[in-house]
Amino acid sequence: MREFETIAAISTSLGESGVSIIKISGEEAKAIVARIFVQKNGRSFLEAKPWYMNYGHIINPATGEHVDEVLVSYFQGPKSFTAEDVVEINCHGGRVATESVLNQVFLAGARPAEPGEFTKRAFLNGRIDLSQAEAVIDIIQSKTELAMKSAMEQSEGRLSREIADIRSRLLHVLAYIEVTVDFPEEDLEFTTGQEVSEKLGALMDHVKSLLSSAEEGKIIREGLNLAIIGKPNVGKSSLLNALLMENRAIVTDIPGTTRDIIEEYLNIEGIPVKITDTAGIRETQDVVEKIGVDRSKGKIQEADLIVFVLDRSRPLEKEDYDIIEYIGNRKSITLLNKTDLEDKLELEKLPLGEVIAVSALNGYGIGELKKRIKDLFFHGSLEIRDVLVTNRRHKEALMRALEKMQDAKNAVDAGISLDLAAIDISAAWNYFGEITGDTLSEDLVDKIFSDFCIGK
Ligand code: GDP
């Protein structure tokens, strides 16, 4: 195991709460806490048994003064989160109590942990691989139960096992090629080529099936980006509110006042849907509104799905047509809002795809809308078992690996020397290793962990 400095951080969130947990990890963890922890039973913490709670006080060793009343546990490495010695101090919650205790931990010799550093150590110490480490952050950031389940599976190593299996099969293929190249006989080279091609083909099918769930996986993990667009006053804010069932967005009668883009998450049958309510897209001279419109256009480009709102109680205007043109053939649903009012829309003039009649005001059609949103992205019932790839980084590595395997297969099929195919196969093997972190550069590993929160 590699040796690192002993680090400490608050692992719970810093609000008013009953308890906060301070985590300390590293060789010195126990010794550091022993300097500032006075146990009720009079024993030194240096003698503390692992996996027990110990009651006492954190003191300021300079003055002997009590800082807080605490419960402290010791997790002996390698059976700990980081695989190092870990001490956890349960102190009183709230910023002041927690930071006072943490401060004593620092004075006693620990240094502040960087974001994600505890998880990074678990990775560097070989307790978990990179995809499992990434799953830890996904668990914390899960927006729906489904997202959490999928992250749990990943943290338990389901994807890692698949990748390890594929890599070992690739190594087999490489070894096979090596033997042939070492004993070059024409016949052998030919039969080996055929076998290599078959094996690569089967592996590629497997990788493709992993990738086939990646789109759904991305949506489960990051949420579906949904942009609500339409000219002013058609009912976009009202629709957002109807979807959220609470009044978080500002609803207004004055055209053009929903200037800011408001983002909210909605849980549609387990799918986290990120809703963007935009200022209407329209030609405008108003500078403030112009910014809103430009941002709306950007949001629309990023959206997975556009919900275009029309006011059924008013005839169509140029603005509506402009928006339709702007949507083009992007994935969209058109809502005919205000169905509770008299119908003044001449629909036959519109080249519309999917149309749903709704009333944002009384909730009519909102259930239908939610159902259609889900059906557009997920076919049938959503089974988390089938979704293994949720992370964009993993998806990209898989795609690159697949490309290299295809290159290798093409070379073999074309009868080009097996040596060349072997180069592509090793490249693919490396790409798979990036997922689990076996072949990823230290810089990239650092970058991944720097996105974590402190104390994890
Ligand atoms: P936005 O500018 O597109 O965001 O539109 P708002 O949501 O602010 O709505 C504009 C006005 O239309 C408000 O007075 C809403 O109460 C009203 N409105 C929105 N949806 C409906 C609806 O379904 N029926 C009726 N009658 N009025 C609605």
TrEMBL record:
Keywords attached to this entry: Cytoplasm, GTP-binding, Hydrolase, Magnesium, Metal-binding, Nucleotide-binding, Potassium, tRNA processing
Keyword Magnesium: yes
Subcellular location: Cytoplasm
Positions annotated to bind GTP: 233-238, 252-258, 277-280
Single GO MF annotation: GTPase activity
Co-factor binding details: Binds 1 potassium ion per subunit.
Cofactor(s) needed for function: K(+)
Magnesium found in the keyword field: yes
All copies of domain TrmE-type G, residue ranges: 223-378
Binding site for K(+): 233, 252, 254, 257
Residue sites binding Mg(2+) per the record: 237, 258
Binding site for (6S)-5-formyl-5,6,7,8-tetrahydrofolate: 23, 88, 127, 456
CDD domains: trmE, TrmE_N
Gene3D superfamilies, per database record: P-loop containing nucleotide triphosphate hydrolases, Probable tRNA modification gtpase trme, domain 1, tRNA modification GTPase MnmE domain 2
InterPro entries linked: G_TrmE, GTP-bd, GTP-bd_TrmE_N, GTPase_MnmE, MnmE_dom2, MnmE_helical, P-loop_NTPase, Small_GTP-bd
EC number(s) recorded for this UniProt protein: 3.6.-.-
GO cellular component: cytosol
Biological processes annotated in GO: tRNA methylation; tRNA wobble uridine modification
Entry function: Exhibits a very high intrinsic GTPase hydrolysis rate. Involved in the addition of a carboxymethylaminomethyl (cmnm) group at the wobble position (U34) of certain tRNAs, forming tRNA-cmnm(5)s(2)U34.
Listed name of the protein: tRNA modification GTPase MnmE
Species of the source: Proteiniclasticum sediminis
